[in-house]
Batch of 2 targets.
Target 1
Amino acid sequence: MAAAAARITAVDTYDIRFPTSRELDGSDAMNPDPDYSAAYLVLRTDAEDALEGHGFSFTIGRGNDVQVAAINALRPHVIGRPVAELCADPASLYRVLVGDSQLRWLGPEKGVMHMAIGAVVNAVWDLAAKRAGKPLWRLLADATPEWLVSQVDFRYLTDALTPDQAIELLQRGRSGLAEREARLLHQGYPGYTTSPGWLGYSDEKLTRLAHQALAEGFTQIKLKVGADLADDIRRCRAARNAVGPDIRLAIDANQRWNVAEAITWTKALAEFDPYWIEEPTSPDDVLGHAAIRTGVAPIKVATGEHVQNRIVFKQLLQAGSIDVLQLDAARVGGVNENLAILLLAARFGVPVCPHAGGVGLCELVQHLSMFDYLALSGSTEDRVIEYVDHLHEHFLDPVTIERGHYRAPRAPGFSAQMLPESIARFSYPDGDFWAADLARTEGTRP
Ligand SMILES: [Mg+2]
């Protein structure tokens, strides 16, 4: 099919689950048994280049089938779209998906349906970047401020950020871009590691992994907290002893506490000099976060991985609720909404330290931070991307970490593509792994 006439011909979906709960990888105070999963999709076209767009939502096991069903519900909006037009203006599809008047009832702009929109929109960006022959971070950094702003939905934002203000931020952000790109390609983008700190790990394993993080060049690690205060005190002491006084130690409660409890618990850990407390309470509690921030200062407050959309981020910033904004590549409405969130953070001068880990979240979010550095915030100071060292082997273009830094990806696309053999093996329930596992444990699993 001639390039100009090519259309989207298929949206193929897959329920992919990894049995990570067996080793307590990913365990925290609210999620004791996560099986890291991806509701995964592939956009196929009839173009001669045979390029595909890959995207996914991250979930943790049961419910991944629900997430896949939500992606399937969007299929009629995608099939038949002209590829060139879609890739030249991903916002055209974003607006249709967010605006579906019947599906919108299930949100609006939150939850399972919104995550499905994010997966589809991100797949479009993957396809657009592949067609442009650029990694996504470069496609975004090369774009004009006007075009980037055309990709943002300013509905519900203009009391905090107008399109004109966004253009001004992006114009200012471009100054010195070439120099920063050279630095990015040479040094990479700073990361921090959560690998030592899962709640289910023994103190011995925590200490060993903290030492390993130091040896690998990380300058920040993170510990899960919030299940038992005596345990947290013991684990924070072990971690601080392992890394010494100069490494930043973040703590993460995964929404475990009420507001007053968050303040007392965090203060009880203050002697270990935590850098930030992450997700101290419900991600919807804008004013609660503001109270916690006042109560625990100078310890910083961070949240974002479960923040539903740009409107809640706007309020967190307006209310002075957070010191650190932790956007997630696959929670909100894809790249388009994350551009809005990056612009809001720049407007309020709050550093973005993305949530990652899970399945493929490191692969995706590195592109957004690198764009932010090159063409918007212009700084990596107090900015780090979360890193967790599992499941990267299932990706075609996995992240590369050197001396605690993310190397800038070079391959065209959004680094979203999983290996076909991984998709086949871990598809639930019929992939080789799960078919064998379910046969072995028949009748004993929920
Ligand atoms: Mg977290």
Note: The chain has 17 helices and twelve strands.
Target 2
Amino acid sequence: MPRRRIRPTALLLITAAVLTGAAGVIGATWQHPGEPDEEESEAVVFAPNASTGSCGVERWSVKTGTDADASKITLQSTTSTSIAALGALARPASLPADNRITPTETTVYRLAATLTEFKLEADSDYHLVLSDTSGNTLIGEIPDPACVGSASPLASSITKARAEFDAKYTPTTSFKSANVPVTVTGVGFFDFLHGQTGVAPNGIELHAILDVQFGSGGPTPSPTPSASASPSASASPTASASAGSCTPTQLLGNPGFETGAASPWTASTGVISNSTSEPPHAGSWDAWLDGYGSTTTDTLSQQVAIPSGCTSATLGFYLHIDTAETSTATAYDTLKVQVLNASGTVLSTLATYSNLDHNTGYAQHTFSLSAYAGQNVTVTFTGAEDSTQQTSFVLDDTSLATS
Ligand SMILES: [Ca+2]
Ligand SMILES: [Ca+2]
């Protein structure tokens, strides 16, 4: 059953970046205006399209994925770790300019941390200081896409991470405090030690950062409008006496499809995809429903038990839609998002998207499932295409966050 898909082009264009190689003058040293920690000054190259007008030099290809070993980065999987665990790694005796220290620099790590402060570096990186509750820190860096070679396998994720950060903050060349919980995904990297703010003792960093999610417990759900309407008579902080307790968590398995297989989702053949035709929101894999331009129904579903003590349960996902349909009036191809009970009865249709909702990049959508606390429900995405003109419904970074 070969897939005959029409190649969408929109997302492929975002990596058409401007490259440092074209820009001149290696070795100029950028001065931080009024910055006390001068050790942070590093060699930079002139790059008129970058945020500061400069990109970096030192191990720059390794930092941005254009080095000789870039293809060795294990993009198809993410390793959960912690600041303490990364900080305990042995520091290599030497750091090659254009090669990677395996396995640390070929591994994509994900960790939860507090973003304590951040700033725009001379090399146009966003410099993030990440800390844990024991006071350990490490640095994460989000390069400027204008400083990343288009051949980098990290380019699209770096662009996305930069946009995620820009949506929340506007870094300047001075440190700003944040002190917010984040989940950061990035490639391991050993930096030279030159007094960088927040540097781990062994110089380990996440560099480049490929994804930033603000809030705790995975992708950030929007605040749910419901569930807080109860009278505030119980001003005491004691847990309410009703049914079970709720441990705030994210309930969906394989939420970003990064295992490269469906489980614990149930998915139609070919839905779990790492095709570059439909780039993921994060990582390497997504769920691509439809896109054939012929009569097709693709489904993706996962059963999940929402604990009875949870007053908030929020389904979230990122959705990209592109289409060959040109109608601005008729929904020829549709994606339904539904909640079913254990018997398969539809409890709610949360949303129906169509070719009319096509967008560039991904949009995040959230829905309250608080009404289903205490139930075993199945979240189902059903994409139905008519006989012609493809529409692709691409999902990534799903979540069902409870609290
Ligand atoms: Ca993914
Ligand atoms: Ca169609």
Note: The longest strand covers residues 176-190.
